[in-house]
Write a structure and sequence with these properties.
36% of the residues lie in helices and 21% in strands. Strand 10 (237-242) and strand 11 form a beta hairpin. The chain is built from 19 helices and 23 strands. By secondary structure, the protein is of the alpha+beta class. The strands form 8 sheets. It has a 5-stranded antiparallel sheet with strand order 14-13-23-22-21.
Length: 574
């Protein structure tokens, strides 16, 4: 029997249509076959999702892939802690899944590559058991599945040790802390900045565990030892075990020396000039943001900055154009805001031009000027100078000013504008403010590592920075900062005297039964003394911030200290 071809006797166009229809039928048939036979098994698809979520560290999503029984046996918090603990034990930083196998006897194998900080690259298979049928199949998870390659009942364990700690050097290569005893030829000058070693406090411990550091190891807890701790530790060595099985070993590797920006001459001047006085002193290079010296509580102690904050208030007022070189103000002993009088220091009568008002640190001018500037612009200016932000130095305190909506009324804004109220700053911060003005309104990122690349941010218009700089020169020439003057060098500075106690005395009328308390003489412990400065004023090479806690007035006690450090800084950078 002969079957006639459906194409015989057809025109070319009809033949094409018949062929297209035949191919469409074949495709439909193939799709039907695939639908019947199915795509990848549900277990394989779920296993792929599970390991992809593991690679992202999405533990809640992983937990959703588990069987009901597995979730009843282990809470999400415990499940997450199991995975994080295992990853930290292995010092794992990355999980990369390979090709997911098809299920065999209810188990899906996934080859995993794990990159670790100290044990190199580990390769093992994560064997995921499943329970349930079809789309209901889910991972029947148990604790040993928290890390690839573990067998039932096994947990990761490690023993590690550190290499010898790396040395810390000054910018010229002089050791600041070296060897096991962390000694230095600079003696106490280096000790004041190098810091100390001990067991890690709680806030450091978890991070160090992730790096493979033994819990009983002595690490940096203060000073440069704390700031550069991870760079000084090097790479720990040791053994990683799965139960009793050794799965990886590594040898400790010492870190390279850390060369800092600390200048021995400037550091010596800072430590010796501060002496036994409680406070802080910081010296910086304005152009690079390098910290040349730190003494006392320079970056950790926060106190009201007093009138050094007027650098910020002046800059904000100039930027907002609510004050300028031709502005004049009443000569008076105080100003009233919200019915409360804010007095000048020692009841001084001052005012006149904006320059003279700044040079003589007139509260009667700058408190109302701050209130006029307003909370929003005052806070914005302070934050541009670095307030309310991490200074970028580990362990350094954050200088703060309340949010604009939290400062309060005009009186509170005025008090903040003269560095009182709830404004708090460190000596490092106020030295940084001076450094920003010295750099023409560019705030340079702070650094303690020699040779580091630093970022600069525009804070003020160059013209504003020049005006503030000029007014700061007047502080030293004719104002409250004369004790910081250096022969032959133009110094720009700003004094600050922050009140720590309520020095007002209530009215008292003596009676037969009572006597009025005697009027107390000025007590220097009632105030913090501040000074922030840079030199030379026109081509700055060094900036300083000085805080002397409960030590009188800034112009009397802090300015002379700043002068000695400026001299050392000029010599070191000349």
């Amino acid at each position: 029997m002969v079957v006639a071809s459906p194409l015989r006797g057809r025109s070319p166009a009809q033949r094409r249509l018949i062929l297209v229809a035949s191919l469409a039928g074949l495709v439909a048939l193939l799709l039907t076959v695939l639908a019947v036979t199915g795509g990848p098994p549900a277990e394989q698809e779920r296993a792929k999702r599970f390991v992809d979520e593991l690679a992202r560290g999405d533990y809640p999503a992983m937990y959703a892939e588990l069987t009901d029984a597995a979730r009843r046996a282990r809470s999400l918090q415990a499940f997450t802690e199991d995975h994080r603990r295992a990853a930290a034990m292995a010092t794992a930083v990355r999980f990369v899944p390979g090709e997911v196998s098809k299920p065999s006897d209810g188990v899906v194998d996934v080859p995993m590559t794990v990159t670790t900080r100290i044990f190199g690259t580990l390769r093992a298979t994560l064997r995921l058991p499943f329970a349930g049928e079809g789309d209901d199949a889910r991972v029947d998870w148990a604790q040993h599945l928290a890390f690839p390659g573990l067998r039932r009942g096994e947990r990761l364990q490690r023993t590690t040790r550190l290499p010898p700690r790396a040395d810390i050097l000054a910018r010229d290569g002089t050791p600041l802390a070296q060897g096991e005893d962390r000694s230095s030829p600079l003696g106490a000058v280096a000790t004041a900045i190098s810091g100390s070693l001990d067991k890690a406090p709680g806030e450091q411990q978890q991070r160090l565990r992730e790096l493979g550091v033994p819990d009983d190891a002595k690490v940096g807890i203060s000073g440069l030892e704390r700031i550069f701790d991870e760079a000084l530790i090097g790479r720990p060595g040791g053994v990683l075990r799965a139960g009793n099985r050794v799965i990886a070993t590594t040898t400790p590797k010492a870190a390279k020396v850390v060369r800092t920006t600390i200048d021995p001459q400037v550091q010596r001047a800072a430590v010796e000039t501060l002496g036994e006085q409680f406070g802080g002193l910081a010296a910086l290079r304005p152009r690079t943001g390098e910290i040349l010296a730190l003494a006392g509580v320079a970056f950790s102690g926060l106190q009201p900055p007093g009138s050094t904050f007027k650098m910020i208030t002046l800059a904000g007022a100039l930027e907002a154009r609510i004050a300028g070189p031709i502005s004049t103000y009443p000569v008076q002993t105080g100003a009233t805001i919200e019915g409360v009088e804010i007095q000048n220091a020692d009841g001084e009568s001052c005012g006149g031009s904006l320059r003279l008002s700044f040079a003589h640190s007139c509260n009667s001018v700058f408190a109302p000027l701050g209130a006029k500037l307003g909370a929003e612009r005052l806070v914005k200016t302070a934050e541009a100078f670095g307030f309310n932000a991490d200074p970028g130095i580990p362990g350094a305190a954050t200088s703060v000013i309340p949010a604009a909506g939290e400062i309060g009324d005009a009186l509170a804004v005025g008090s903040s504008a003269i560095g009182q109220g709830r404004v708090l700053a460190s000596a490092l911060q106020m030295g940084w403010v001076a450094s920003t003005i010295a750099s023409g309104g560019l705030r340079t990122q702070l650094t303690l590592r020699a040779g580091a690349t630093t970022r600069r941010v525009r804070v003020l218009r160059p013209s504003t920075a020049r005006t503030v700089r000029s007014y700061m020169e007047s502080v030293v020439k004719v104002g409250t900062g004369g004790a910081a003057a250096i022969s032959g060098v133009r110094v720009a500075g700003k004094t600050g005297t922050a009140e720590l106690k309520d020095t007002t005395t209530p009215e008292c009328t003596p009676t037969q039964e009572t006597e009025c308390p005697p009027v107390q003489a000025d007590d220097p412990t009632d105030t913090d003394a501040w000074f922030a400065a840079f030199a030379p004023a026109r081509k700055p090479r060094v900036a300083v911030g000085v805080l002397l806690v409960q030590n009188g007035q800034g112009g009397d006690t802090a300015a002379p200290v700043a002068k000695q450090v400026l001299l050392a800084g000029l010599k070191a950078t000349g």
